[in-house]
Model the fold of this input.
Amino acid sequence: MIDAYHKIKNESMAAADSNVAVIAQMLGFGISHILEAKGCLRQDKSKQREQHIVKATEIVAGLRSVLDFNRGGDIAANLDQIYVYVEELIYSAHLQQDETFLDMAVQHLRPLKEAWEQVLKEEQNNVAKSLLNDKTESGATRI
Done:
């Protein structure tokens, strides 16, 4: 019975880790596409710029689509507002061909990415501590 509990606990923690990791990774991809679009804007590569703009916008829209307003409350609402603003910045950059908007989009996404990466590190540390405690406790009960 205890082994089944530990298995479920570990699987739940792994699922949470993977969700956090995916969000951080998607933010990184979004930032990369924005920076690529900026480079294409500077080099007057309109087709490639448009492709990166579309990808960055799709990523931000995807992040918005998975927000859980019931569980996330004010945090989810704030993230939604940031994502909407970032989408508007990307769109403005495309229309006005102004890299300043792209810089602003990155300035909003980068701290989010770093925050999610920090959450992931903390969760991984908690999982490691939990596993060590489980091993210590199970070892102590066998004595």
Notes: The longest helix spans residues 99-142. DSSP finds four helices and no strands in the chain. Helices lie at 2-42, 46-65, 69-96, 99-142.
